[in-house]
User: Fold this.
Amino acid sequence: MTFVVTENCIKCKYTDCVEVCPVDCFYEGPNFLVIDPDECIDCALCEPECPAEAIFSEDELPEGQEKFIDLNAELSAEFANITEKKDPPVDAEEWDGVKDKFQYLER
Assistant:
């Protein structure tokens, strides 16, 4: 089992989760983070740290978020590894909770 970054991270991209990850399994795209499922050790430290509540255990994904399992795996091979917390985008709070953000995902 692994943890999965889901749709609400798009355009929010808070990096609080990165700071607590003991195995550096987060990868950063232009406006989204992903978790490499092969590196995740299922420690659950990242989930409560996410201000946007966008991280879930793959067994507890909200309905409609299942596609993010494969997307995390795919994009972790494309995105750069991130190991330190960064400032969120200036408009992150405005995007937190917005529905149907998948169309805004940048690769």
